[in-house]
Hints:
The protein has helices spanning 36-40, 99-103, 137-165, 179-191, 196-206, 216-222, 228-240, and strands at residues 25-27, 32-33, 49-51, 54-56, 58-70, 74-80, 87-92, 109-119, 122-132, 214-215, 244-246, 252-255. It is of the alpha+beta class. The protein folds into two domains: 25-160, CATH 2.40.50.140; 197-255, Winged helix-like DNA-binding domain superfamily/Winged helix DNA-binding domain (Arc Repressor Mutant, subunit A, Orthogonal Bundle). It has a five-stranded mixed β-barrel. Strands 1-4-3 form a three-stranded mixed β-sheet. The protein is elongated and about 60 Å long.
Amino acid sequence: xxxxxFDGGVGGFLASQSGDxxxxxxxxxxxxxxxxxxxxxMSPGEDNLRIGTYEVSQVSIVAVIRDVSYGDIYTDITIDxxxxxxxxxxxxVKENKNTEEMQRKCNSLVKVFGNIxxxxxxxxxxxxxxxxxxxxxxxxxxxxxxxxAKLSFEKDCLNSDRKESNRPKHATPFMSxxxxxxxxxxxxxYDNGLSGLRAEIYRFLSNNDTIEGCSxxxxxxxxAHVTMSKLRDEIEFLCCEGHIYSTIDEDHFKAxxx
Length: 258
C-alpha cells in the first residue's frame, strides 16, 4: 500500500511557505503512483510531474509490457496501462543480462519504478526497478493509490482556491459596468466557485457558440500573457470540475450548460 507520507507536509515534502498561494514543493525521495496518461500530458521540457502543489519525478506504474527492443547499453520496454498511448521504459543493460527473460514477460502485467526523463523531446521512464504482478488485486490497489495521491496533493491547491472565491472581487477587463451584465459576471464568479484566470477562461468559452468550441490555441491567443503550461493546468482543472468539456478532440473545449 502507499506510504502514509503522501499526506501533505511529511515524508520528505517541504512545508508550504507563507502566503495565500502554496508554493510548489518537490519530492525527491517518495515514489508516487501514476498512470501513463499523467506522464503523456506533461508539458514539453518538464521532467517533474506536477500534481496540485507538488512536483514529483520518481513514480511507479502498473502496466502491460507490449514490446521489448534491445540496444547495446539499454533495453526499451513499451508499457501500456490503457489510460492513454503507451510510454517507453528504459532499462540500462547489466553485464550477462539474460535478454530472453525480458522477452518472456511480453504481454505480462508488471509494476515499474523509475524516474521521468526527456529524451529527444519524448517522455520516457528510466527504470530502477521492475517486478511481475501476479495478483490482480495489486492493480486495483495501484489505481486506488493513484487516486489517493492525486487528491492528497491537490488538497492545498483546492483549499486555497476556495478561500479566494469567498473574497470580494474587483472589476476585471472582462466585466461590464452595466447592471445586468455585472449580475451575470457575479453569478459566474460566485455560483460556479471560480475566480481569477479560471473564471476568465470559463467566460471566454461561454461566449463561443460554435459546435466544436474553442481550441487550446484560440484560448492561448486570447490570453497571450499566460504561459501554455499554466493554461493547460487551468483547463484540466475546469474539465475535472465539470465546468467545461472536450468536443471534437482533446484540444477543443466548450463551457458546460447549466
